[in-house]
Write a structure and sequence with these properties.
234 residues; mainly alpha; 0% strand
Length: 234
């Protein structure tokens, strides 16, 4: 009796030992065309065994890479993608750098800082004043996304003043969008999204039921005896 601990190590455990044996057997097929056809067949089986890989846009490319990896990079077939190399597998991905924008009020986002910087370059006038009020209203929305309770308009105006480097001020009596209006709109949007999801789910169920009914209609009906016709006796 042979134990798994005594067998060859499985390269990619998601596909199991049988797939690995099938892939290793490909090199025993001398005809290149037949070997390539067998490779395509195995890749399709691998896709069925791992349906979650289909969530990726390049899932077929990954499956072919896995095929070559399991084959120890020794497989010679006419695949749809370039053959990977062991060096590519060992290569580390490039480091993704962190943003170095040290903004004091992170809940407003970098775009608020960028817009305020642009507005500072504008000439004073009604247009600039209207843009500043829109910026303040957007800041209030962003603040309520971070703190769902409430916020004082004076706090928003003070934050705008600080973000601008103490160069932009709005009158203290400036009225921004009411807090309840922002929160209610956000809740209504969430409710609409939930209702849309339920509607889509109901539509899918109705489509499935219609398909079942159509299939039942297409099935041959059993012959029914005519009640007006006397039964024959053998």
């Amino acid at each position: 009796m042979e134990y798994n601990t005594e067998r060859e190590k499985i390269v990619i455990s998601e596909y199991g030992r049988n797939i690995q044996v099938m892939i290793r057997h490909l090199n025993d097929i001398e005809d290149r065309k037949q070997r390539t056809e067998a490779a395509y067949f195995i890749v399709n089986v691998m896709a069925q065994m791992n349906p979650q890989v289909k969530e990726s846009n390049d899932y077929m490319h990954k499956l072919w890479d896995h095929l070559h990896i399991i084959a120890k990079y020794e497989l010679d077939v006419d695949g749809p993608y370039p053959k990977p190399t062991p060096e590519m597998q060992k290569k580390k991905p490039e480091h993704v750098g962190y943003q170095k924008n040290n903004i004091r009020y992170g809940h407003y986002g970098q775009y608020i800082y960028d817009v305020v910087k642009k507005v500072k370059e504008m000439e004073d006038g009604p247009k600039k004043q209207a843009i500043l009020i829109n910026i303040a209203n957007q800041m209030k929305r962003d603040y309520l996304n971070w703190n769902r309770d409430t916020v004082n308009d004076l706090l928003i105006l003070d934050d705008l003043y600080k973000i601008s480097g103490e160069e932009i001020t709005l009158p203290m009596e400036t009225k921004l969008i009411p807090t309840n209006e922002i929160l209610n709109k956000s809740q209504n949007q969430q409710q609409q999204q939930q209702n849309q999801k339920k509607k889509n789910g109901n539509n899918n169920n109705n489509n499935n039921n219609n398909k079942k009914n159509n299939n039942n209609k297409n099935q041959p009906q059993a012959k029914q005896n005519n009640p007006n016709r006397p039964n024959r006796k053998n």
